[in-house]
Write a structure and sequence with these properties.
It contains two helices and five strands, in the order βαβαβββ. By secondary structure, it is an alpha+beta fold. Strands 2-1-5-3-4 form a five-stranded mixed β-sheet. The radius of gyration is 12 Å and the shape is globular. It has one domain (2-75): Beta-grasp domain (Ubiquitin-like (UB roll), Roll), CATH 3.10.20.30.
Length: 82
Amino acid sequence: MTVRVLFFASLRERVKRSETAWRLKDGGTVESLWNALVEEFPAIENMGGAVRFAVNREYVDRDHTLADGDEVAIIPPVSGGL
């Protein structure tokens, strides 16, 4: 299966792209996707404990099972304000 992965903020800067298509085995989870991305982009490994995941615009846990064509947004913590 193939999913569309969107990278935001500092995560996007570390992987040097805003999105990618990623192939996974059927039944893959958000966690297995993250692990595969860390192998490809080692610079993101230390962000793993702080990122959030949204699949098709809804926040999900790491054990969420992905389906072909899903859009997975990976969102690092952000700070700011007044």
